[in-house]
UniProtKB/TrEMBL annotation:
<feature type="binding site">
    <location>
        <position position="118"/>
    </location>
    <ligand>
        <name>substrate</name>
    </ligand>
</feature>
<dbReference type="InterPro" id="IPR011032">
    <property type="entry name" value="GroES-like_sf"/>
</dbReference>
<keyword id="KW-0547">Nucleotide-binding</keyword>
<feature type="binding site">
    <location>
        <begin position="302"/>
        <end position="304"/>
    </location>
    <ligand>
        <name>NADP(+)</name>
    </ligand>
</feature>
<dbReference type="Pfam" id="PF16912">
    <property type="entry name" value="Glu_dehyd_C"/>
</dbReference>
<feature type="domain" description="Alcohol dehydrogenase-like N-terminal">
    <location>
        <begin position="28"/>
        <end position="143"/>
    </location>
</feature>
<dbReference type="GO" id="GO:0008270">
    <property type="term" value="F:zinc ion binding"/>
</dbReference>
<keyword id="KW-0119">Carbohydrate metabolism</keyword>
<feature type="binding site">
    <location>
        <position position="158"/>
    </location>
    <ligand>
        <name>substrate</name>
    </ligand>
</feature>
<feature type="binding site">
    <location>
        <begin position="192"/>
        <end position="195"/>
    </location>
    <ligand>
        <name>NADP(+)</name>
    </ligand>
</feature>
<dbReference type="InterPro" id="IPR050129">
    <property type="entry name" value="Zn_alcohol_dh"/>
</dbReference>
<dbReference type="GO" id="GO:0070401">
    <property type="term" value="F:NADP+ binding"/>
</dbReference>
<dbReference type="InterPro" id="IPR026583">
    <property type="entry name" value="Glc_1-DH_arc"/>
</dbReference>
<dbReference type="InterPro" id="IPR013154">
    <property type="entry name" value="ADH-like_N"/>
</dbReference>
<comment type="similarity">
    <text>Belongs to the zinc-containing alcohol dehydrogenase family. Glucose 1-dehydrogenase subfamily.</text>
</comment>
<feature type="binding site">
    <location>
        <begin position="214"/>
        <end position="216"/>
    </location>
    <ligand>
        <name>NADP(+)</name>
    </ligand>
</feature>
<dbReference type="GO" id="GO:0005536">
    <property type="term" value="F:D-glucose binding"/>
</dbReference>
Length: 360
């Protein structure tokens, strides 16, 4: 079968014939036909050789790429319940160490040992292949009504987790407005890629004043999506920023993109660091630290998601599909075949929100 294969930490990606499904299913396993994969910055970081933490499975020198996925059940083990042949599924990405309390409780996204593996990223083959076998405990069933947008579930699950972390930690005080809503709170999302737009969606539907920030004007599809979800796009080189920011979310990974905005943080506000990259240096001085301390500013990083976050993401996608018709579909700006994927894995096309690899 075909697969997109990389050799981290070396640069490059190739479409290659592999044969790793040569056994029968055990009782709790499912054979899955891949329908689609999403391409994200992590995939491009691995292909470019910039993400040094990527690694092949033990005793292999190659890795099947791909962590954003959608598949269909074509066979199942004798003990599998709740899934039938023909059902659509999404596999969760991170698999726990099996040792720490969080992993043993199904919260491998908070692994304490660092000995986890992640499909298509580190230590575990991913989903950019025609077929794969997975354990039912790692699968989330997808309702037929959202199959066309379900490939967005993996990135959304990360956003759901970060949002839930924020709402939990902000219980440290009374944070909502006098009328019990969040209509007086400003959220600034740095970056207008798929993660930035999903963050904007989740805050906008909860009633926050949501601003999407970038150092350019919006592409037409971005502008259309942002208008429909009742958010506002700001070109930071010329636009008027919110007077105060109650939640600042960085999806870029570049300190120069969000640190200059931190002097606009309101009292008791929060900063979510989500984007990752490397190389850039930016000064943080003592005056800024004092400002954060004196204003009770919360700052945390967030990565990955649990199965519960995936399942909650299914509910969001189902609701949003009917509340905002065609908005989520418009986030999928390009569909390519596996043989064409190397082109978009090396270079992000202009105007891209989300490029999808279709296997059907």
């Amino acid at each position: 079968m075909k697969a997109l294969v990389v050799h981290p930490p070396n640069k490059g990606v190739e479409v290659k014939e592999i044969s790793d499904i040569d056994r029968s299913l055990n009782g709790n396993e499912v054979l899955i036909k891949t329908i689609a994969n999403g391409i994200c910055g992590t995939d491009r970081g691995i292909v470019s050789g910039l993400l040094k933490f990527s690694r092949p499975p033990t005793e292999k020198n190659s890795l099947v790429l791909g962590h954003e996925n959608l598949g269909q059940v074509i066979d199942k083990g004798s003990n599998v319940q709740g899934l039938s042949k023909g059902d659509h599924v999404v596999s969760i990405v991170r698999r726990g160490c099996g040792k720490c309390s969080n992993c043993l409780a199904g919260r491998q996204d908070f692994c304490e040992t660092g000995e986890f593996v992640e499909a298509g990223i580190r230590g575990l083959d991913g989903f950019m292949r025609e077929f794969y076998i997975d354990n039912t405990s790692y699968l989330v069933r997808i309702p037929y009504e959202i199959v066309d947008i379900a490939v967005l579930l993996e990135p959304l699950s990360n956003v759901v987790k970060a949002y839930n972390e924020l709402m939990l930690t902000q219980r440290r005080m009374i944070w909502w407005c006098k009328d019990g809503s969040y209509g007086c709170k400003n959220v600034a999302v740095v970056g207008s890629g798929p993660i930035g737009l999903l963050f904007s969606l989740i805050f906008s539907v909860q009633g926050f004043n949501t601003f999407v920030l970038n150092k350019r004007d919006p592409f037409p599809t971005e502008a259309e999506i942002i208008e429909k979800i009742n958010a506002k796009f700001i070109n930071t080189t010329k636009g008027q920023l919110p007077y105060v920011i109650d939640v600042l979310i960085d999806t870029s990974g570049y300190p120069s993109a969000f640190i200059p905005l931190m002097n606009k943080l309101n009292k008791n506000s929060a900063v979510i660091l989500f984007g990752t990259t490397g190389g850039e240096k930016f000064e943080v001085n003592a005056d800024l630290i004092t400002y954060l301390v004196e204003n009770n500013v919360l700052l945390f990083g967030s990565v990955n998601a649990s199965k519960r976050d995936f399942e909650e993401g299914v509910n969001y996608l189902t609701i949003w599909k009917y509340r905002y018709p065609n908005v989520l579909n418009k986030m999928i700006t390009r569909v390519v075949k596996p043989e064409e994927a190397s082109e978009v894995l090396y270079t992000k096309p202009r105007g891209e929100i989300k490029t999808i690899i279709s296997w059907v």
